């Protein structure tokens, strides 16, 4: 483990300042171990502590602790949202994780406010929730593709902030990560999907249309990251051209968060010696 | 990997014959590697193949394959249902697992038929669903504690069989495992929970009352395992006094099932070369 400033401080986007994505190097590895090998080793090393802290979070919830974590993953196609779930969330006991990948809204979901389907997938006390895409799509693709009127989109930033603030007030620590990749890196990853037979199912021709809108998406992200970075629920920008760094950084953000929460195994709310005696007596 | 008869054949309870649990040694390790060390090593070795097959199951579903797996875990308190989820399901990408631990029904759930809440938690195509307890509680604790009239319980066996048959007809492979532990082993595990401060949260005085009903529970299990072992959805009896064997055996059952399903990465339903050209042209 590194004795250094919290990674959260390093990756957190400033609140109240316009975000300029071009100012951030997607190939950087801020605060990271110096090499891929060191990064992989350090990530593996974090696994045990993460799993232990998760168990304590879960155990505490059985005694009324309402705290939980919500990890929100956003980023362009191929930025590694799914890979993060596989490699980082794989550290945890899956029984305590509530993972949801948000797709384009179903007919039922479209009948309701955009936050309706999100509220249903929130982590319960003691759980670690993971959103692969999220309510932010409703100010990203919705904006880029004009799926809602301009005034509606504008109001959503405000409603998102209100929603997330109410979550934090209800025991949810919200960790929002924007996985930042370069346009070139996306091209490499899309070509790799095409060139590898067992990866072709991950590709769809629609990905080409989305990629053509790259500048519009970057703009929509800049607006969302600017308007929805709040003290209660800040955004983190995770350079994600290096998969090992992305996994290391998000593991580390979760570790810092769990250490800060410092959940405790609850004390017995029953008489241990009496229960012991009862169990043994029954055997006689 | 062992070149031997499928473990499923070895652990599957015969269909149409009354089950006598006392005839099965909960400390046995049928078909297993000869030692704990070999069992742990073989379980770890299966991890990669399990994860690879799971990815193929998931990929196939994106192209319309509706197949999926439902693993049902039942057993007395401390028999290791939660441990199985942690150690066996931990092999998989958590994004493709749908895990649900059934607790005593909520007020809302009690308004409906007992299968209502179960249907909502079923795996979607491509997923591996895991039930930690299940609809079988409605013929186990419900019978032992007379939570429903006798006639209602009787009708439930039939409805369970109908329900599970309809699942298998809809692409769900149902793997039902009864984790068989001895009364002595339960005592050891309960005492360990009491004697280990960070395990005390797992214990509740109610566990003593349930344990006192051990014979009634064994009887209720025998009835359920007899009446609900069908060719479509058989029961497996997994001796579970040895945790390493339990994890090995369930990993192995899942592996045999996934190999049998043999899901395939779908072929591209688009023109790969054309997409490649489009992506590269755009860069010019």
UniProtKB/TrEMBL annotation, chains A, B:
<dbReference type="InterPro" id="IPR016898">
    <property type="entry name" value="Polyphosphate_phosphotransfera"/>
</dbReference>
<dbReference type="Pfam" id="PF03976">
    <property type="entry name" value="PPK2"/>
</dbReference>
<keyword id="KW-0808">Transferase</keyword>
<dbReference type="InterPro" id="IPR027417">
    <property type="entry name" value="P-loop_NTPase"/>
</dbReference>
<dbReference type="InterPro" id="IPR022488">
    <property type="entry name" value="PPK2-related"/>
</dbReference>
<keyword id="KW-0418">Kinase</keyword>
<dbReference type="InterPro" id="IPR022300">
    <property type="entry name" value="PPK2-rel_1"/>
</dbReference>
<protein>
    <submittedName>
        <fullName>Polyphosphate--nucleotide phosphotransferase</fullName>
    </submittedName>
</protein>
<feature type="domain" description="Polyphosphate kinase-2-related">
    <location>
        <begin position="38"/>
        <end position="260"/>
    </location>
</feature>
């Amino acid at each position: 483990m590194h004795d250094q400033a919290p990674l959260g401080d390093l990756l957190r986007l400033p609140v109240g300042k316009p975000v300029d994505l071009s100012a951030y190097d997607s190939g950087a590895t801020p605060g990271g171990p110096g090499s891929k090998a060191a990064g992989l080793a350090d990530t593996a090393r974090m696994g045990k502590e993460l799993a232990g802290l998760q168990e304590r979070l879960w155990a505490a919830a059985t005694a009324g602790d309402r705290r939980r974590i919500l990890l929100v993953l956003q980023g362009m196609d191929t930025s590694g949202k799914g890979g993060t779930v596989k490699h980082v969330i794989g550290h945890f006991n899956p029984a305590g994780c509530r993972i949801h990948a948000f797709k384009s809204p179903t007919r039922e979901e479209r009948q309701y406010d955009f936050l309706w389907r999100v509220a249903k997938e929130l982590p319960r006390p003691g759980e670690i929730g993971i959103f692969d895409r999220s309510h932010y799509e409703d100010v990203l693709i919705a904006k880029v593709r004009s799926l809602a009127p301009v005034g509606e989109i504008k109001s959503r930033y405000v409603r998102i902030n209100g929603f997330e603030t109410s979550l934090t007030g209800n025991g949810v620590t919200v960790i929002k990560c924007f996985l930042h990749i370069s346009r070139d890196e996306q091209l490499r990853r899309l070509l790799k999907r095409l060139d590898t037979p067992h990866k072709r199912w991950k590709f769809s021709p629609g990905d080409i249309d989305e990629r053509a809108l790259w500048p519009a998406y970057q703009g929509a992200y800049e607006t969302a990251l600017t308007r929805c970075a709040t003290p209660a629920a800040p955004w983190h920008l995770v350079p994600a051209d290096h998969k090992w760094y992305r996994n290391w950084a998000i593991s580390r953000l979760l570790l810092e968060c769990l250490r800060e929460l410092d959940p405790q195994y609850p004390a017995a709310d029953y008489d241990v010696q009496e229960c012991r005696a009862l169990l043994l007596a029954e055997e006689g």
